[in-house]
Amino acid sequence: MARLYFDGNSELIRDKIIAMIGFGNQGSAQALNLRDGGFKVIVGNIEDEYAERARKLDFTVYSISNAVKQGEIIVMAIPDEVQPEVWSRDILPNLAPEKIVIFLSGYNIYYGFIKPPKDNDVIMVAPRMIGEGVRENFVNGRGFPVLIGVANNHSGKAWDYALSYSKAIGAIGKPGGVAVESSFEEETITDLFSEHTWAGAFLFMLAEGYRILIENGVSPEAAMLELWASGELIAITKAIVEKGLFAQLRGHSTTSQFGHLTWGPKYVTDEVKKLMREAIRQIKDGTFAKEWLLERLAGYPVFNRLWDEITKSDVWRDEDRLYRLLGRR
Question: Beta partners for 4?
């Protein structure tokens, strides 16, 4: 069993300057949470729309190299695929000994794309939700789960710093919050496994289910509202979080329960199990990491093609029409 922590001493980092490198979904959410908690936050970012957004929210924005020079805690909130280049160019040359480096995922340390010096504490605080949830929970006075890990424990206090930062961003010390003792390896494997298995399959199964309903005379509006657009999925997910994966079924009608229990297992075929095991194999042996690296170096041709196919699909077209009518777009 993993060790769980429900609180930490945020005063350990109270007087330190926190340099948030990147102001995207996670960076902006954590920077806002930290500032609302009374911590000193600066932003390091290239000159783009994210830097402009940070300024509009009254953050002081520096170049990444200058932010690293000024910060005592360096938070790596830029995308995994660009981190190695930014690290070697802007961060490592300005990373004085004793500074604390916080990664929000284990990806680059686990795969060896970044090899930090030994005279810095290198820790991981990885929220188990997107930035929007990190911010929303904080505003509503609730905590959220994070995985914490340590790659370098130079000071001997790296685990304490991990808990301190976890509390500072609002993950622990509040209802619903927990920090799970983990590792860069474990976080990478579990995170990528979700993305490569059930999460992606879920989206494409809903899209295929939509097409099958349409084939059988159901209107696009009724099909989308039933499958995802009504918000019922949010209620079900919330019930899973609060009650448990299968225990939440008790809140469904008995007809629904019977349908779930008789048809659900049929989709977990031997082929599906084989695909899931292949996914984790390619994660652990580095095949996916190499593929993603080459994709970036080539200018994202496959990534862009896949997005182009999605945005030209019938599901995207019909959803866009409905969502505009509903005022969501």
Answer: 180
- How remote is the C-alpha of 175 from its chain's centroid? 21
Q: Is 18 helix (H, G, I), strand (E, B) or coil?
A: strand
Positive or negative: CA dihedral 138, 141, 144, 150: positive
Which residue bears the tokens 């957004």?
53
**H-type alpha helices, the chain:** 25-36, 49-56, 64-70, 83-86, 107-110, 131-139, 158-168, 184-196, 198-215, 220-224, 232-243, 254-263, 270-284, 287-297, 301-311, 314-325
Q: Which helix (H) or strand (E) segment is 4 a member of?
A: strand 4-5
Contacts of 32 (CB under 8 A, 6+ apart): 57, 135, 138
Query: Which residue, among 89, 121, 124, 94, has the nearest Cα to 109 in the 3D structure?
Result: 124
84 phi/psi in degrees, rounded to 5: -60, -45
147, 160, 189, 157: which is closest to 280 by C-alpha?
189
First vs last C-alpha separation in the chain: 45
pLDDT recorded at residue 2: 87
Phi/psi of residue 42, nearest 5 degrees: -120, 160
In angstroms, the Cα distances linking 60 to 55, 78, 254, 258 are 6, 17, 56, 56
Give the pLDDT confidence of 67-97 residue by residue, as tens digits.
999 999 999 999 999 999 999 999 999 999 9
Which H/E stretch holds residue 20?
strand 17-21
Between CA 194 and CA 191 the distance in angstroms is 5
Q: What percent of the chain has pLDDT over 70?
A: 100
Give SS3 for 103: strand
In this structure, what DSSP letter does residue 114 have? Answer: -
What per-residue confidence (pLDDT) applies to 214?
97
Residue type, 256: S
pLDDT value at position 102?
98
